[in-house]
Amino acid sequence: MAAATDIQTVNIIVNGIELAVPKGELVVEAVKRLGLEIPIFCYHPRLKPVGMCRMCLVETGMKNPQDGTIRMMPKPAAACTLPVSEGLVINTESDALKKDRKGVLEFLLINHPLDCPICDRGGECPLQNNTLFYGPATSRFIEQKRHNVKAYPLSDYVTLDLERCIQCARCIRFTEEISGDSQLAFRFRGNKTHPITFNETKFTSKFSGNVIEICPVGALTNRKYRFRARPWDLQTSEAVCLNCSNGCNIWFDHRAGKVVRINARTNEAINEEWTCDKGKFGHDYYNDEKRLETPFARTGDELQKADYATVYAKLLEAFHGDNTGMILGDSLSNETYITAQNFFTGQLGSHNIDYRFSANQAKGASTVDNSIASLELAKTTLVFGTHLADDLPIVFLRVRKGWFNQGTQVILATDRSDEVSEFAAHTLVYKPGTEATIAKAFAGQVSVADAAAKCGISEPELQAAITAAAGATVITTTSLNHEAAEVLKALDGNFNAYPTGANERGAQLALACDGLSALEQLKKAANGELSALWVVGVDLFSVGLPREEVIRALENVDFLAVQDSRRTETFYYASVALPMTLPAEQDGSYTNCEGTTQQMKAIIPPVGQAKPAWRVFEELSIRVNPRMPFSQASEILASAPAFA
Amino acid sequence: MSELIQLGSHNERPMPPKADELNLRFSEQAIKELEGLKTHYPNLKACILPGLWIAQREYGGFLDGDAIAEVAHRLSRSYAEVQGVATFYSMYNTVHNPGKHKIEVCTCLSCHFNSAYRIRDYVSKKLGIKNGETTADGMFMLEEVECLNACDRAPVVQVGDRYFGPVDEKSIDALLEELRASEESTVVKMADQIVQVQLKAEERVGTIR
Amino acid sequence: MAILDKIVKPMIAGLGITSKRLGHSRPTVMYPEDKREQFPRTRWRHVLTRHDDGLEKCIGCSLCAGACPARCIYVDAGENTEENRLSPGERHAVRYEINMLRCIFCGYCQDACPTGAIVLRKDFELANYDREEFIFTKEMLLEPALSERSK
Amino acid sequence: MAEYKLLLKHSDDPATQTLAGYKKAGGYSGLAKALKMERQAVIDEVKTSGLRGRGGAGFPSWIKWNGLPKEKVKPHYVLCNADEGEPGTFKDKMLMETAPFQLIEGMTIAGFAVQGDVGYIYIRGEFIDAAKALRKAIDEAYANNLLGKNILGTDFSYDLHIHLGAGSYECGEESALMSSLMGERGMPRLKFPHAPLPTVSGVWERPTLINNVESYSCVPHIIDKGGEWYATLGASTKNSRGTKIFSVSGHVNKPGNYEIEFGTPLKELLEMAGGVKGGKLKACIPGGSSMPVIKPDAVDVAIIGYEEMGEVKSMVGSGGCMFFNEHTDIVMLAWRTAHFYANESCGKCTPCREGTRWMVQIMDRIVAGNGQKGDMELLTEVANNVEGRSFCALGDAAAWPIKAFIRQFPEEFEYWIEHGKSPVTSKEALALVP
């Protein structure tokens, strides 16, 4: 980044006030320095300006440097596309401009339906707001409005209403410039212009939720939120998305204790203002019918509702010594990991507490050199063995932003082509299982010809990619083949093995991992060598292990404790089960893939008798060894040196 | 309006076609021509317009979804983008199959004042179709167009790559007879000629007629 | 004389007033057998009205809830389908509840309603024995369809 | 003054459509001369000539030529705007069909002057005949070393391609033309001061020179005979030099292209075209449909020149001159003009997209006999809101004629609104209502 002193400034006059602003800044941004607001529709700070809606008209002029006279231009100009230059004079308020804005709004409204009362955007709609502040009170339009499709289900998540569309192209520019899939485009011209997918096929973008948020009207609305609430019904709280390890900042909108919608919250260091569809629409588990509400204990073949005291007694009876194990999910809070480690190893004396289901998730190779924000500044990026748009969506957006804005050269090596290959300079599609060989080829440990033959890539292609990748910033995940990871880590450039679990990074930091790994525990359990197993916040049937193995493990362990938020498949094998709160129902902190620890407060009340996992561990801990327990999540985090 | 999505198809949307599901129909000549055109421009995007002309010829005058998908695929652009470009321009037949001959009647200022609407109504009555429709036998399509810039010959009618003007009822009768008798589709011929004139002599596969 | 002045005269005067009033009509209404006619703009119990074709006017827009100073209205909306059409257009109210204990009968909901669905009418008998009963549901508020009313 | 055939001098002779014939008629001497000159000298010659853009705006051509970087870093492009779409104009079509070599020579000289690498002639899709003539000429020029590598043995190499549009009036706007050439929807791009000038960053963000067919066609003559000689043409006007082709159409006896010197009275142009047919003159649109209409008294005094036409509140524009006789219904004229702009609006900016359609709806209503009091004021008001607020000049072009029709012929609008029918009762006029 350029140092502050490098920024050239120019002097401009806004409404008679002189000020110095960075050269080339757009007028619409420059006037914000004076606290002025220019009404906009099509302008978006993260998209290239187009000047389509004409809402941001301002009067411009030039100051003569010699005699200081000001000459105003006869026509108003669009503030969203005009870069400032020395001596520029801008008026944002005048009677003529008021009339211009009224005129533009009248034009926008003549074909906009009057269905604000049933529109999901109503109440938080820029068109409503601008009309209120700048628009005409009445319309002189007495002709037939333009009719078009309404409530068109463009995908499972997005509903399109073309009557409401004001053709600002924000959605189209998003898919072109940010997500890169170009799935939306204008069709036809003139007053028939409308944005839509190719042949009205499904809008399958992995970032489709963002177009809903940037739409300045209710043309693109959230299908899952459709008619669920109005903005004034909602309570909104700051939260962190925990559907993957990127840790996007989100607004958590809830009504009467139920989550109804998730919107992106701006954090320049992480997600800017975007979310992926997984995060934006994947909140069903909060309102899941299968939520676990009370503790359960097994009597014979049946799991019956029980109270905490009974279950605690049974747990303390079953767990002690190294013959027991605890498996933790990778999306629990840091507090859970810290207290679990203290309780399980410190009080119960077992070292078998772990979160790793894959042999590749070794702690050693999990280095992260780059923050997410710094990825866009890399000159060359090597994306290795991961499908970024799926595994690390926000990292994907950063890598693409680097390519789009700075011309970062991107090299992709993976087992099938994906979204990254759309813009990658070199795409190497290797045969599954040959990661280590190709990594060694990058390090020069294997000859290019051999590697090419073994991995199924043409030799010149591989050679070109290897040449281009010199000194590249490597991006991969912790689930990459261990051998390949070690080789890539030794290369010249930065190495980033980002974890994919929502708080896998926190687990790495908080857990000692000096006993059996989760995978080893399950193997041991399957052989009947484990007397008790405690599974916290993870459904063993959904971690990618063969079903039979999991069933064998669960059936052959003497005592199975399950602590989870919902009745997962694992729950039905449990000896005892404890209900657990979800992130929005508890205080907690989470560490994302780049190592930023973010706090989250309890937003909605817990379901039934569910408790945060750390509180359960604390309550059990004082039963074993009476002391003053932690009563707040923040105290726990402060006690852990790994998070200092 | 026919150019808008039909109401009522509110069921789940189909998935966009994958690259290997496309039914590619470009002939060898077309592929060669496209390769030639690619050398004219610094990037593939600029070939969208010429590519669509090739597709309009290859797909018999009508650019349906398949044709657009093929152009997009061959030029590595997104389907939606190419469809957006194709629907912007009035000479690409993206909405309505024009049949064999597209009769374009200029009704703009000079032609209007030289009775272009009378000519349009005459054609419309004679063929039994309204503006923007195709006859049942797929022979003719009638379309009102904006200024063809041959105002000295008003009223003007364009059929394929030829202008006719000034026209009256009699010459329209003769023109329709001639078109009915001709084997070749003027819609396809026009697309072909437009492709040919853009190619250099050494790149040309077809002929300029 | 003192007796006459202090007792008899006032009695006669009092009876005089009474006798003057004998000819007047009786203002007291024998409630609940008789009920007094309410003024035309009286604001009492809410009613959710219908269109003539029987469809509900309420579109579940929650504007009444937004306008309500007592925060006593709760609306849950749903989407109309071909099979289940309750109101014209896309949206209808699934739940519509008014907490009559909190309602101050200000009529703002009526002002806010874009379709004229909620109106405050003249039914003032709102007393009840059970607090739960003061939550008026959509079924209670909705006026019967024309066809049912004629029955 | 009579016709002055400079650009059209070859048009009557089909032999000049071959290279041999063109050379025999004096062609390619301009290029030969230019290639021996300094590049800057060529530009200076254009400056001396006082040539102004013939596409409609009348911008001095040499400023564009001079604006391209002298130190070449990126490839330079030379674009020819042959997307002639202005109703009433058909001069570029004729120039391309009858004098293709003149255009090619002009573009080659321009390419030499601005160090161009590739030229593109963006021809309107409908003009297949023009494209065929040009293609034939370009092929011949390539074969004779007048295009391609090392032209005429110099180190100047230049490629010329034909690019056909596909039906969009908007692509005649230079930035929309660039969008279209780059394979996008033909929507206008940001212009100075919102973005760098095309001469610095045009197509593919590289320096680009863009001119009209007629402008390029003037260049061989300017170089051949000298800028000073060219500047003597039209010297009677304030600031318009050279000749201009006018496409005369409408109710005239001999519609066609007429080349005249600047400074010629408009009345003479009408006489050249054989006078008005079918009655007295009622109205004239002097420069293509975008230009404000003028009445006969203005036609009598109007002098053709960029500044001079301003005195009768109109413009030279692209030179599409339409005359209308007394049986013309002005409201129908306005109605059709409004439809044209609504159909050709690209839909990018709000005022043009919505305003043109609104104007059409109001005009439709008036023509259907449902006009209301206040419609004229409303039309003017809508046109005012479009004018100057739109992204490109199409909005202005849509607003000007409507405003001018109302200003010049208010009584006809009033009649339509009051009576719901045309004030012109002749049979011809009644047939115009669709």
Q: What does this 3D model show about the protein?
A:
The complex is a heterotetramer of chains A (644), B (209), C (151) and D (434). Helices cover 27% and strands 19% of the residues of chain A. Chain A is built from 19 helices and 28 strands. The model of chain A has no long low-confidence stretch (mean pLDDT 92). Chain A starts with 8 loop residues before the first strand and ends in a 5-residue tail after the last helix. Chain B is 40% helix and 9% strand. In chain B, strand 3 and strand 4 (162-164) form a beta hairpin. With 209 residues, chain B is α+β, with helices and mostly antiparallel strands. Residues 1-9 of chain B have low confidence and may be disordered. Chain D folds into three domains: 14-232, Rossmann fold (3-Layer(aba) Sandwich); 245-325, Ubiquitin-like (UB roll) (Roll), CATH 3.10.20; 330-430, Up-down Bundle (de novo design (two linked rop proteins)). Chain D contains 18 helices and eight strands. In chain D, a hairpin with a 5-residue loop joins strand 5 (243-250) and strand 6 (256-261). The radius of gyration of chain D is 22 Å and the shape is globular. Chains in contact: A-B, A-C, A-D, B-D. Chains B and D meet through helix 2, helix 4, helix 5, helix 6 and helix 8 of B and helix 7, strand 3, strand 5, strand 8 and helix 13 of D.
Largest interface: B-D, 52 and 69 residues
Strand order of the largest sheet of chain C: 2-3-5
* Head-to-tail CA distance between termini of chain C: 73 Å
Query: Which shape of chain B, going by the Cα principal axes?
Result: globular
Looking at CATH, which topology of the largest domain in chain B would you report? Arc Repressor Mutant, subunit A
Order of helices and strands of chain B: HHHHEHHEEEHH
